[in-house]
Structures are given as structure tokens and as C-alpha cells.
Write a structure and sequence with these properties.
Rossmann fold, GMP Synthetase, Chain A, domain 3, 3 domains, 10 strands, 47% helix
Length: 316
């Protein structure tokens, strides 16, 4: 018998059995194993012994609060046992007007009726309290998103958690986001969620994956090439072949790095100003571009100005 405390114990009145089934379905969709006493205890087993055994190894306790629940002596005993056991996360769900009471009257209850998305409640609470339980499953939901709105809905609760991603989780999220066009081209994902992810986790994901994701969300921007020492204040002189080659190689290397160049300005004394369409640059990216400039005898300074490319495609 499994002795790890990673099972969700759903406590409910037999009169609220359908709600117990819905809670079980939502938790299982997140990869959480569940225990429902009235479904899982055999008639021949000793009721109290089995309940105590399951409570000892559970990590999540979900009481489905209702008048029926409060009228059950055994449901209230289950609440007391869960409250007294160290390490159990209690998520009270409110089916009617019955708020958390007794040992758990200090906890926030989550109202639930037929129109509410119970899975979204579990996602919110578990990401905040037990993130390692669900983050991998939600990342795989990102991979499977089939519409822009679905992608935005799935990614949104992950945003506050980006800074807590492990390196493995960050790399996997970047990979699935870059592969799924419904994710990287969804308006909120492209303009808000994914830039924030790169800001929080960009330095912790493989260079190739980071570059691909940046290319996806930044898009292609036609750069301004100012090769004359006076910029665009007068018509620029025809560029020297070597300078034109430098500009081409800078643009090619930028693309390899997943960067979008907005402006290349070659100045006297072999200096270059490069404006990048990004919120920040990593040392790896700076070194990659500086090495190209150095081949032509130029030093380089960077400026970042992030603006996403305006597309006509809308979230659907």
C-alpha cells in the first residue's frame, strides 16, 4: 500500500455525492490522486480505521461544505483530524451558504456552484501552496491548447509563478510555448505573459529555445540602417561594402539569437549603436553581437526598446 501523503481526501455528505465526483474529476485531471470515502471504502471494512488510515497519508483535504456536511458528525470529525495533522493543505469548498466553521473558520472558503470552474480554483490554490504538485501538468495543458483563448486561460495562472520555476520546468514551458502557435500568437501571451516569462526565466533556459521563443513573439521588424556618421539628419552616403557586410552579419547573428534589431547606427571611430526590440539582453546575447562587430574592428553599445509587432490576427 502506498504510504506517501500525496492523495487528496475529499470529505462530503452522502447527500452531496455528485459534488464529490466533480471534485475528484477536477483533481485527477491535474494529476492528483483522490480518495472518496463512500466510493472507496468497502462495506466489509471498518469505517473508522480506513478513514484514519487515509487521512494519515493525505496531503490535501477538500471538505465540501454544506448544511448536509455540517449536520454530519463524521464529516466534522474528519475536518478536526485534518486540521490537527501537520502538513495537510485544507481547501474548503462551499456548496451553499455554509462557511468554514469550527477548526477551519479562519480559512478562506471557495464558493462553488454549477457555473464555477472548480478546476480553476484548485489550480489557483495549488500553484500558490503546493506548486510542484501541478505545474508540470499545467505546462502539458499549454502544449495541448487548441485556441488562442484557451492558451491565454491556461497560461495566465502560471504568470505569478514564473519566478519559482525550476530550470527544468522553465525549459519545458519555453519549448511547448514556442512550438504551439495558439500560445505564442495569442494576444495576451505574445504581448504580456511570454515577455514576462523571458524576463523571469530567460537566463535559465537553453539558448536555442530562448532564441526561438523570442523570434516567435517579437516577430520580424524591418531595421533602420544608419551608416552615415550623422544618422538620418541628412541623406546617408552609400555604405562602404565592408560596413554593409557588417550590418548584414549583425542582423543574421541577431536572428540566430532570437533578437529583433530596430536600428543599426555606424558612427565615426569604429563605433556602433544597436537598438534591440527587447526588454533586456543576456551577456550571452551581448557577447554574440560584440564578437561580430569586433571582426570588423567596431565596438558596440546597446539600447533596448521593447515593443511587440502589431499583427492583424486577434485572439479567438
Amino acid at each position: 500500500m502506498n504510504t506517501t501523503r500525496d492523495t487528496a481526501f475529499i470529505s462530503y455528505s452522502t447527500q452531496d455525492k455528485k459534488w464529490g465526483g466533480l471534485a475528484e474529476e477536477a483533481l485527477r485531471s491535474l494529476g492528483i490522486r483522490t480518495f472518496l470515502a463512500h466510493d472507496h471504502i468497502q462495506v466489509s471494512e471498518k469505517w473508522k480505521s480506513r478513514i484514519n488510515s487515509e487521512l494519515k497519508r493525505t496531503h490535501i483535504f477538500v471538505p465540501l461544505l454544506s448544511k448536509n456536511f455540517k449536520g454530519s458528525d463524521w464529516c466534522s470529525q474528519e475536518v478536526g483530524y485534518a486540521f490537527s495533522t501537520k502538513g495537510i493543505l485544507i481547501i474548503p469548498m462551499i456548496l451553499d451558504e455554509t462557511n468554514p466553521y469550527g477548526f477551519i473558520n479562519h480559512l478562506q472558503g471557495y464558493r462553488w456552484d454549477s457555473k464555477d470552474d472548480i478546476r480553476a480554483v484548485f489550480v489557483e490554490v495549488l500553484l500558490r501552496e503546493r506548486p510542484r504538485f501541478v505545474v508540470n501538468r499545467i505546462v502539458e495543458d499549454v502544449k495541448a491548447a487548441t485556441s488562442f483563448k484557451a492558451a491565454e486561460r491556461i497560461v495566465k495562472p502560471l504568470v505569478p509563478f514564473f519566478s519559482k520555476f525550476t530550470n527544468t520546468e522553465a525549459a519545458r514551458f519555453a519549448e511547448v510555448a514556442a512550438e504551439n502557435g495558439k500560445v505564442w500568437d495569442a494576444a495576451q501571451c505574445r504581448d504580456d505573459y511570454l515577455p514576462e516569462f523571458l524576463k523571469q526565466c530567460g537566463r535559465r533556459i537553453p539558448d536555442v529555445v530562448r532564441a526561438l521563443l523570442k523570434r516567435r513573439i517579437v516577430g520580424a521588424v524591418e531595421p533602420e540602417l544608419f551608416l552615415h556618421p550623422y544618422g538620418n539628419t541628412i541623406p546617408p552616403l552609400p555604405p562602404k561594402p565592408k560596413d554593409a557586410q557588417l550590418a548584414r552579419e549583425i542582423l543574421e547573428r541577431s536572428y540566430d539569437l532570437g533578437l529583433s534589431v530596430r536600428r543599426v547606427y555606424l558612427m565615426p571611430e569604429k563605433k556602433m549603436e544597436l537598438t534591440i526590440n527587447d526588454s533586456s539582453l543576456t551577456d550571452y546575447e551581448k557577447d554574440g553581437l560584440s564578437n561580430v562587430a569586433a571582426k570588423f574592428g567596431y565596438s558596440i553599445t546597446f539600447e533596448t526598446k521593447f515593443n511587440t509587432v502589431k499583427r492583424t490576427k486577434k485572439s479567438q
